[in-house]
């Protein structure tokens, strides 16, 4: 585990990350909305065992990183800038940037603001045009609860923080970590994302040249497969893969892990120079 600091208008904030593996074949994995970085532990270990140097990051407001109460501290663009700051901190000239849900959107934003730093994109269930209404309906109550009924959020945090993570199933522990937020920070986080840029617009997405593997889920109202398919059609060098279910990469990850590993290795495989013709 490691940490680094970013300077913002509100001060200096600490972010935490975990490294797996070694070498220069960098991969950065980014979590979903409010979910801690350890959601990608298994995939990170799989990619590292294949030779990649993988880093999982807690954005500001996530997991063990700082959680300021300032809404201006949270946006997809600022999360993307944090990824670039992480690459600078690690001394990584380029990396494959990947993520789930919010992490997928941030990956796209990194490819827009720092295209020369992106070796490839590993994008799972992006939240784009077809998910807007469901996202608002899903997360507006969270913002209202944090603003109007903060004692309820504090009570939930008090209860979940006292559950030992070692005695519950792994995904239950991640769920407990996800809801363990102070009401002020939670309200600021959701407010910042609601009123900021959610993802690069289509015109900018079409200019992303990095190779991409885009994974979509069927029957997922918040992350419709139509968004993932649309994104794959927009990106000039993208491949679309449809998961068998919303939970395939969580419960039976072998197939998608294999696809992701092949994609990562292909991105980092040295380009062969054409042989000079014999005289």
Automatic annotation (TrEMBL):
UniProt-listed Pfam families: Abhydrolase_1
Gene3D superfamilies: alpha/beta hydrolase (3.40.50.1820)
Stored InterPro entries: AB_hydrolase, AB_hydrolase_1, AB_hydrolase_fold
Annotated AB hydrolase-1 domain residues: 26-126
UniProt entry keywords in alphabetical sequence: Hydrolase
Superkingdom of origin: Bacteria
MF (Gene Ontology): hydrolase activity
PANTHER family, alphabetized: AB HYDROLASE-1 DOMAIN-CONTAINING PROTEIN (PTHR43433:SF5), HYDROLASE, ALPHA/BETA FOLD FAMILY PROTEIN (PTHR43433)
Protein's UniProt name: Alpha/beta hydrolase
């Amino acid at each position: 585990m490691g940490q680094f600091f970013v300077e913002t208008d509100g001060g200096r904030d600490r972010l935490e990350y975990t490294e797996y593996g070694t070498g220069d074949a960098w991969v950065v994995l980014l979590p979903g909305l409010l979910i801690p970085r350890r959601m990608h532990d298994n995939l990170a270990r799989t990619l590292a065992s294949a030779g990649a140097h993988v880093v999982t990051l807690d954005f500001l407001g996530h997991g063990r990183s700082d959680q300021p109460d300032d809404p201006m501290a949270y946006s997809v663009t600022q999360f993307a800038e944090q990824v670039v700051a992480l690459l600078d901190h690690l001394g990584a000239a380029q990396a494959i940037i990947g993520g789930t849900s919010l992490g997928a959107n941030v990956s796209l934003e990194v490819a827009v603001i720092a295209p020369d730093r992106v070796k490839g994109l590993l994008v799972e269930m992006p939240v784009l045009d077809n998910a807007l209404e469901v996202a608002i309906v899903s997360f507006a109550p969270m913002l209202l609860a944090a603003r109007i009924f903060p004692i309820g959020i504090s009570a939930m945090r008090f209860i979940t923080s006292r559950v030992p993570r070692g005695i519950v199933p792994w995904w239950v522990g991640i769920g407990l970590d996800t809801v363990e937020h102070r009401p002020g920070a939670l309200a600021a986080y959701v407010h910042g994302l609601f009123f900021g840029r959610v993802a690069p617009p289509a015109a900018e997405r079409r200019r992303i040249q990095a190779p991409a593997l885009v994974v979509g889920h069927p029957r997922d109202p918040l992350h419709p497969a139509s968004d993932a398919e649309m994104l794959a059609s927009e990106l000039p060098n993208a491949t679309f893969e449809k998961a068998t279910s919303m939970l395939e990469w969580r419960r039976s990850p072998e197939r998608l892990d294999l696809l992701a590993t092949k994609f990562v290795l292909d991105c980092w495989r040295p380009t062969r120079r054409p042989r000079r013709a014999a005289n």
